[in-house]
Specification:
Four copies of one chain form a homotetramer. By secondary structure, the first copy, chain A, is α/β, with parallel strands linked by helices. Chain A has eight helices and twelve strands. The first copy, chain A, folds into two domains: about 140 residues, NAD(P)-binding Rossmann-like Domain (Rossmann fold, 3-Layer(aba) Sandwich); about 140 residues, Dihydrodipicolinate Reductase, domain 2. Helix content of chain A is about 25%, strand content about 20%. In chain A, the strands form two sheets. Chain A has a six-stranded parallel β-sheet, covered by helices on one side. A six-stranded mixed β-sheet of chain A has the order 8-7-9-12-11-10, covered by helices on one side. In chain A, a hairpin with a 2-residue loop joins β11 and β12. The two termini of chain A are about 35 Å apart. The interface between A and B is large, with 38 and 38 residues.
């Protein structure tokens, strides 16, 4: 039984993570830190957990009691401070959901950049620190990794991202044009294709939904549609959560799951890749559990056969 | 391993059911009937199943090959016709999701009225036929069973139901005043309180969401709030999916799960019970799996630790 | 030209009101108070007004410059304080959107309880103070006034209200059972039927939409459906914004308008009245303009031929 | 008084159009054709019109009785057939909402391509036939016309369009890559900049809302942000429905109106233009009324001071 501790337990990401871990057959949650809610029932704060757990938040969890710590603090810098001030016993693994240790380009860093479809080897071979990618970088990478692997990122890349709306302003079209996760994705792609210097042009618009990322990427390429599809099939063949779909993917098909659905087509000179994932799952909590499974040598799907809504 | 067959495999209910059964550790799906889609990949029809299954629909499944058959035909009368025309080997269990065999009042019927919170005993003691309740009847029953058990249904009962909208007319306020499931609930309540002749006044309005039932029931009663809460606590103590909540329940807390959340309060002379459940899960597919677990002597929560969205 | 001033100009109600008044052929807005946003462009705060006005908020408007003041302060007590501290020249009319002066039962109060369908006469005959009803009270009244007028409120009244969700918790089912507007409606009904002592049982649930009230009211009555429909037809014959509908009314049919749609039917002993209105229009800003039209002797529909969305 | 006839009266576009014309001070609707609903009350079909009109549909309207005919048939080819088979008296104007007569490039065609911001002159100078642009072409044009006017469309143009979902599949991400309205927009732009041969790369994703188009366009350009903003200000200065916004535009700010809001910025070498409009209004019914105002020499805003929702 893997004993787990969670910091930032009152964050949304922690709420999703706790729910997954409660139902994971090989995990026992030992403590959940939330200093400002010490003593409060977790299920009273994360109301979706009613009936699932009777644990309460604690102020400070003891790293000696656990095998893995999930850092879910939502402020930038919190994870870095936690690591600086907290003595972590050797062998205790740490999975960080914040941006603090994301360094895809630094192969010497103890923090493995934890995209399982890119870095499964270091994750299963003894890593003790894993940094979960940002959700925008993650979906861009899943859309582009097979092209980078085949050294095909040789033209400007255009990314059209539709993100969740903020609940306060459901109809607002706030356009994102610059984002730190563009650089994160770019550096990760260069690990596969060091020559890749193609700029990424991102436009992001808030869609009218409250969960889910939908992303369309296109670039010019001379390669044929069939060849490209073969590359994607081959690249993702061994990966249990990323699938090619013959029809356009649907947010309803990934909501609540750790899945990413991809669709590839060629139109004129352009290859167009569409991708969908649930930013609070594959983009955050469930990928953290996926990474934990890899770090501890479990089958990667354990505890992650989550509810896709069949028809929503 | 329980071998399962499914009829009406192209229905929405079947889509949810297949997804749950695929991830159920003790079940193997042997066939899924959908005569008009014979040979079609199930995951192409139920797109949320992409990556979960590579089975195809068949025209006619063989009852000899399975231990349990789920009848998911969506037209009234289909299940009755299926049972009339299909020889079912002795010992093969049948779980019907249609209204065809719902007879809560008939204790001689081979078809157990499959509300686990009401009829768990007959379900676990050798039943081979189970009829899943209608979702409106089901939520009314979960809100009222403890009162019936304590013979307290002695005044008119007012039920205010908010149902999903039809996707075609999201803002329409179609008011329901008469519904066959009122009688269904009434007959089931009389099993516990034979004297119960209180009329049920139902008004139902389509809310602006696409999944979930929210129900508020009230009636006059002289009993105190504390005593009533104790009755609910005691009644649901042994049941793994129905919970009392201290705050008003939230559809987000049950979406995608087999849970029902209840809230009980007294205001003036009235007891007011609020209930929420996901009509496509606890109201349909997941309760069918719950009932299967009981029929086969499994622990009732197996395969049903489904994703509640922690904060949505 | 009627010169208008508005307090609480940064409130949502003021935003709707400004938009209506800008397009009203007989009104000129002279000032809009919003002390904390003094000097800010109104259209920058109320973004729907982009292109409609280039006015800015002021800190304090001068009552001497206007013929009518709309009080849109959103805190209870603000209107009362405004009236206490601000010298209002004789003849300047005041329309209050807050609860501060709602006293439907007090026929001596200078503040007319401004439900046009109930109090049109005092409004057109020289009133200078008008208090806009609460939206829940307003919709209950529109559903019940013809019954009160005919002295038929002689049994308990059950009201099932579906309200907008708060944007922060879209799926939350927060049930309302007690509300000050129940008493407000009750006192207003007693003006028509002094013998009316029937209790009003309200259950309110937040629906999944962000605008609109849907209300179903029922009570026992011996009167026939046809007779009741005749009473409603007669009562609302002269009123330009409240209509009987033969089918169940639809929020889409009133959104953005000053309309209330009613549907009346008898089921068993019960008369069931369904009503829909847009709480930010007929429940607030547009009814204030309707009342202004009456106070100034204009045709009641001027400036209020607002967009119903034909099919949404 | 302009006498108007409408064909295809049971279409959604006709529903919106009727509602606007009913409240237009200079228009009288004489007939509304809907052969399959002959005799049916219009307000029973278009339920948002309850209380607004007591007219019924007719099978065939007489062109001799009207001054203008709006063609709202929703099938391609219907308008062309109507014009071929129906004798239209000289001087009766026809406004077509279908694609049948859209030929922006053909300056000899009797059908003026009716983007008021592009072709106001021919519209006000005696045109008798007007073809309403497609909504996708329309929003692309409003985003690009000032650049074309200044001969600046000299690099590939990338268009990221978020469209309404189909009500049946609210979460579906159906990606559009090729669309006849790309060519329509391209030909219209060449009227201003004949040298414009820049390709338009469109990706369209269905967003989570049921009304509204949000569009982001970008292209490389050496011109500075200030100079570009000046061009937009100058181009739209005389146009009463298209506005530059300093913040990112919001669908809530245009819903139900004839407005288009634009935002312009420069990021790196790229100019990025964001635009929002309501596809059923500025993209269809209200622009048809706008065009009618121009054809008949009315002030362009008459009857179109429609409800923007101030804060939704």
């Amino acid at each position: 039984m893997i004993k787990a501790g969670i910091t930032g337990g009152d964050s949304t990401a922690a709420g999703h993570l706790i729910r997954i871990l409660i139902n994971h057959p090989d995990v026992e949650i030992v403590w959940v830190e939330a200093p400002f809610e010490e003593g409060e029932l977790i299920a009273r704060h994360h109301r979706g957990l009613t009936g699932e757990t009777y644990m309460s938040f604690c102020a400070k969890g003891n790293p000696e009691e656990v095998n893995v710590i999930f850092l879910c603090n939502s402020e930038d810098g919190d994870s870095e401070r936690y690591m600086r001030h907290t003595p972590i016993p050797e062998g205790v693994k740490v999975i960080d959901l914040s941006p603090d240790f994301r360094s895809p380009e630094d192969e010497e860093s103890p923090w493995v950049y934890a995209v399982p479809e890119l870095n499964r080897k270091p994750l299963v071979r003894g890593a003790v620190r894993a940094s979960i990618p940002g959700p925008l970088a993650h979906i861009m990478l899943l859309a582009l990794l097979p092209l980078a692997k085949n050294l095909l990122l040789n033209a400007p890349i255009h990314v059209n991202m539709v993100t969740p709306s903020s609940p306060e302003r459901p109809g607002e079209v706030s356009v994102v044009l610059e984002h730190e996760e563009i650089g994160e994705a770019q550096r990760a792609l260069q690990v596969l294709q060091s020559s890749c210097s193609a700029p990424i042009h991102l436009t992001g618009i808030a869609g009218g939904w409250n969960r889910g990322l939908a992303c369309t990427v296109y670039m010019d390429t001379p390669i044929s549609e069939d060849d490209i599809k073969d590359m994607y099939d081959e690249y993702y063949e061994d990966h249990g959560f990323t699938f090619l779909s013959e029809s356009f993917p649907d947010l309803g098909g990934v909501r609540g799951t750790n899945k990413c659905l991809l669709h590839v087509q060629k139109t004129g000179q352009k290859v167009v890749v569409s991708a969908v994932l649930d930013d609070s799952m594959k983009g955050s909590a469930s990928v953290a559990v996926h990474v934990m499974n890899l770090l501890f040598g479990l089958q990667e799907r354990v505890g992650l056969t989550l509810a896709a809504t069949a028809d929503d």
